[in-house]
Design brief:
- The complex is a heterodimer.
- By secondary structure, chain A is mostly helical.
- Chain A has helices spanning 3-21, 25-46, 48-60, 65-90, 94-128.
- In chain A, helix 1 (3-21) packs antiparallel against helix 2 (25-46).
- Chain B is mainly alpha-helical.
- Chain B is built from two helices and no strands.
- In chain B, helix 1 runs antiparallel to helix 2 (29-62).
- Chain B starts with a helix and ends with a helix.
- Classes of the chains: A mainly alpha, B mainly alpha.
- The A-B interface holds A 8-9, 12-13, 16, 19-20, 23-24, 26-27, 30-31, 33-35, 37-38, 40-41, 44, 47-48, 51, 69, 72-73, 75-77, 79-80, 83 and B 1-3, 5-7, 9-10, 12-14, 16-17, 20, 36, 40, 43-44, 46-47, 50-51, 53-55, 57-59, 61-64.
């Protein structure tokens, strides 16, 4: 993840997208999507040390590894839905973009649902003491 | 994959735009529409490959 190459890709892609917008709007959307994917891949290839560090810290606090995996799953859902909603918003379809975001929010909620039950259990346990 | 993908899409876009204009000027509107559709399909196939790669990477990275 060389920040200078990412900046170069972003500016080149933006220039090409503006150039093509005059002839055909769809191609500028697709170029935006391609450049976004490219930059995202560059980030994902380098992100592993951060995950390892977070896992190490969580292991140090004796947190259940189930919770860490829920955290990462939510992060992945957020990334995917953000990419899709940004692409839709670029194309001018804000309604579809907000629906994708809504779907992402509900998916995150669905993934985190087991945690709510555990919080309720904990609260009940504290109250009965 | 690199910046080549962006340049490839740009090349297809420019070629299709030129072909579209030439065909419109010569009065072949139906062929112009088919040309722009074909260009769009080609570019979509290029993108879809990368999107599936992205999904696989995210699935393996975030354990989805």
């Amino acid at each position: 993840m060389n920040i200078f190459s990412i900046v170069g890709i972003a500016i080149a892609a933006a220039a090409i997208a503006v150039l093509l917008k005059r002839y055909n709007n769809v191609y500028s959307l697709l170029i935006g999507l391609a450049a976004g994917l490219l930059i995202f891949f560059m980030i994902l290839n380098q992100i592993q040390p951060i995950f390892d560090e977070i896992n190490k810290l969580m292991n140090g606090t004796k947190t259940d590894p189930k919770y860490v995996s829920i955290l990462f799953k939510c992060l992945g859902v957020c990334f995917v839905s953000q990419i899709a909603s940004d692409a839709c918003r670029d194309a001018g379809e804000t309604a579809i973009a907000s629906k994708v975001e809504l779907a992402g929010k509900f998916t995150v909620l669905l993934i985190a649902l087991p945690l709510f039950g555990e919080i309720a259990d904990l609260a009940l346990k504290l109250m009965s003491k | 994959m690199g910046i080549d993908l962006v340049f490839k899409i740009a090349a297809v876009g420019i070629i299709v735009a030129v072909l579209d204009q030439v065909l419109h000027r010569s009065g072949r509107d139906d062929i112009a529409m088919i040309t722009s559709l074909a260009g769009l399909v080609i570019v979509l196939f290029m993108i879809v490959e990368q999107i599936s790669r992205l999904f696989n990477t995210i699935k393996s990275t975030f354990g989805l």
